[in-house]
Design brief:
heterodimer; A: mainly alpha; 2 domains; 13 helices; B: mainly alpha; MetI-like fold; two-stranded antiparallel ribbon; 2 strands; 76% helix; 3% strand
Chain lengths: 289, 287
């Protein structure tokens, strides 16, 4: 009887502890979002006054951001121009990464040829490459290739940096597709490219969607390389623009906050729609050994 | 080489040449170039370059700021590994026990920071740790005004602030991976153990943690490499300051290249960063 009661009590204690741990972290996770949201909804004069609830709220910052011009100190932010750049860079890079690595992964998974393993491990060595290591030579190379004044100066490096992990994941997936299917298609008269298009691709949707999300987040969020390579103010991507908006201490927080929130929105919206794929995609790289 | 091998080579390389090409031009060649440049003294302003053997490396290990940034990188990395993984394991175990309400909701929300750009998170946390930021406002409203600080401006506190921002971002991602592993453990194991009289903590200590060992290893290595690569948080929140107390390898490299225009010196930092990352990647693949 006594034993039964202690067990119950310790269980109660445990669940209370669990609630406290999880819900305090929930508050900690949500707090920064609420804080910058409340900053973004204030007039400049009210930015430094209260924690969450200033006397009045206003949506004017969002309107100014849409117009690209804040009356306060005449601050100009070309937010939608940079967002357009980010979209272009992300879409072009992800499409190139996926197309090139799908084709390569078929070669690595389904064809035997001379030098395959060396080529495979060579490409894989790029998986963990920090962008800072190759950043300075890339500035020279983009100049030599005459792309230093276009978005391709970041797109091409992103493609090269995205390919290794993508090839690795897709090759692993393609290897698990039975060779009998490939051979049966060959007997029907398909060549390698037709096998890839008609047999392999339709079976690879989960691997492709995980991969697309992984690469989308890498390119969309990348900052260090874009900061070094994009030197023209009309070519900046969102992370670089957000870092420039802040200056050192000059820009009022409501303006910084409103652009930060608007920069978060696209990813948050996509996450809400494709939650399961996001988790699958972002964890794929770590678990596939 | 006979005709059949040639056809076979063509058959293979028509698929991989694009990937190889991108790799060669934008990763392999830059890597070779950075190794070469690290033996030169290069001034980008005057366009001069002089071969100086290991001069840059010798200079590095006499450079107080470089040694400081090396030390800071290690401190940062060790701190985030410990904090992120302890939190993530605790969260994952609680979620896996499934005894509290809102399990799915918590998982979805905890993961959100992982998808956001470090630049945006750094920007937000800079406003939390600023002199009139959220943290100080909270402390004041709790009548703890004497605890308020200029968190990012005091050398002993700035690194802690950067570490906390990183932990905030990464804990949820690690949690999801630990949770996925725990879900794979058959529930019969727990039942058998509790029939044998094992307590909750006994089950965690003797069943869950040992079965998570391999994934803990993987994530520690991933976090280590992530720690070495940290740049965005530092650049946004502190720019390496105050007094280089948060300077890390990547930010040191960046300043040498773009503030002092010494590319050869910056290249030798890049080589050291590369060697560190490759070593830990090798540790991971060796398993």
């Amino acid at each position: 009887m006594f034993k039964f009661r202690t067990r119950n009590r310790s269980n109660l204690f445990l669940s209370i502890l669990e609630y406290i741990i999880m819900y305090s972290w929930l508050i900690l996770v949500l707090f920064p979002f609420l804080w910058i949201l409340s900053l973004a909804l204030r007039k400049t004069e009210a930015v430094y006054t209260a924690l969450f609830f200033p006397k009045e709220y206003t949506f004017e910052n969002f309107i100014y951001l849409f117009e690209g011009h804040f009356p306060y100190r005449n601050i100009q932010i070309n937010f939608f121009g940079t967002m357009k750049n980010s979209f272009i860079v992300t879409i072009v890079s992800v499409v190139l990464i996926i197309v090139i690595s799908t084709i390569a992964a078929y070669g690595f998974a389904k064809i035997r040829f001379f030098g395959k393993n060396i080529a495979f491990y060579l490409i894989l060595s790029g998986i963990m490459m920090p962008v800072q290591v190759i950043m300075l030579p890339l500035m020279i190379i983009t100049k030599v290739l005459q792309i230093q004044n276009s978005l391709f100066s970041v797109i091409f490096p992103y493609v090269a940096l995205g390919i290794p992990l993508s090839v690795f994941l897709l090759t692993g997936f393609f290897k698990n597709i039975p060779n009998e299917l490939v051979e049966a298609a060959k007997i029907e008269g398909c060549n390698d490219w037709q096998v890839l298009l008609k047999i392999i691709l339709p079976l690879s949707k989960p691997a492709l969607s995980a991969n697309i999300i992984l690469q989308f987040l890498f390119v969309w969020n990348e900052f260090a390389l874009a900061l070094a390579l994009l030197r023209r103010s009309d070519l900046l991507t969102l992370p670089v623009e957000i870092s420039k908006v802040q200056g050192q201490y000059m820009t009022p927080w409501n303006i910084v906050s409103v652009s930060t929130i608007c920069a978060m929105l696209p990813v948050l919206i996509v996450y809400m729609i494709f939650q399961k794929q996001f988790v699958a995609g972002m964890t794929a790289g770590a678990l596939k050994e | 080489m006979n005709k059949r091998t040639l056809i076979n080579i063509f058959r293979g390389y028509q698929f991989i040449f694009l990937a190889l090409g991108f790799f060669a031009v934008f990763i392999l060649y830059p890597l070779i170039l950075v190794f070469k440049n690290s033996f030169y003294e290069i001034n980008t302003l005057s366009q001069e370059s002089i071969f100086i053997y290991f001069g840059n490396y010798i200079k590095l290990f006499q450079d107080f700021i470089f040694l400081r940034s090396l030390l800071n990188t290690f401190t940062y990395t060790v701190a985030i590994i410990i904090l992120i993984n302890i939190l993530a394991i605790i969260f994952a175990i609680i979620l896996d026990r499934g005894k509290i309400k809102g399990n799915y909701f918590l998982r979805v929300v905890f993961f959100v920071p992982a998808i956001l750009a470090p630049v945006l998170i750094g920007t937000t946390f800079k406003r939390i740790f600023a002199p009139i930021g959220a943290l100080n406002l909270i402390l004041k409203s709790l009548n703890l005004g004497f605890l308020t600080h200029n968190w990012l401006g005091v050398s002993s506190l700035a690194m802690i602030a950067v570490i906390l921002a990183t932990v905030w971002q990464c804990a949820g991602w690690n949690m999801v991976l630990y949770y996925a592993r725990l879900k794979e453990i058959p529930k019969e194991l727990y039942e058998a153990a509790s029939i044998d009289g094992a307590s909750e903590f006994g089950i965690i200590q003797h069943i869950k943690l040992p079965l998570m060992k391999d994934i803990i290893g993987i994530l520690v290595v991933i976090n280590t490499i992530g720690g070495f690569k940290v740049f965005d948080f530092i650049y946004i929140m502190t720019r390496g300051g105050p007094a280089h107390k948060t300077e890390v390898l990547t930010s040191f490299l960046y300043y040498q290249a773009f503030d002092f225009y010494s590319w050869g010196y910056a290249s030798s930092v890049a080589v050291i960063l590369f060697v560190l990352v490759i070593f830990f990647t090798w540790l991971r693949l060796r398993k």
